[in-house]
Amino acid sequence: MSDVASFFNDTLPEKLKEHPDLADDIQAVYQFDIEGAGTWTVDLSSAPGSVSEGPHDEPGCVVTCEEEDFQSLLDNPANGMMLFTMGKLKVSNVGLALSLQKILG
User: Fold this and answer.
1) Does the pTM exceed 0.70?
2) Span 1-7, mean pLDDT?
3) Distances in whole angstroms, Cα of residue 65 to Cα of each of 51, 59, 89
């Protein structure tokens, strides 16, 4: 869990701080339900964006997967499509999910 938690608690907030334009480009709220690790909200509806633990009332896209699969996605964001087609990565909005590589990569 530490790698996933570290991504949401440290890595991603730092990336958003360094690249506030990501929120302007994406303009969406993501909820990550990572089984075995927790739930996080990534709010990119306005710059610079924010990351918080817990669910969001109205996320634009919910991403659901196992901790091991999310770790694989963090190690290689290009694995996202493969995980999706294998049913290991579920998303509620495919259009918004396509923007995930910008924040995960």
Assistant:
1) yes
2) 81
3) 18, 16, 5
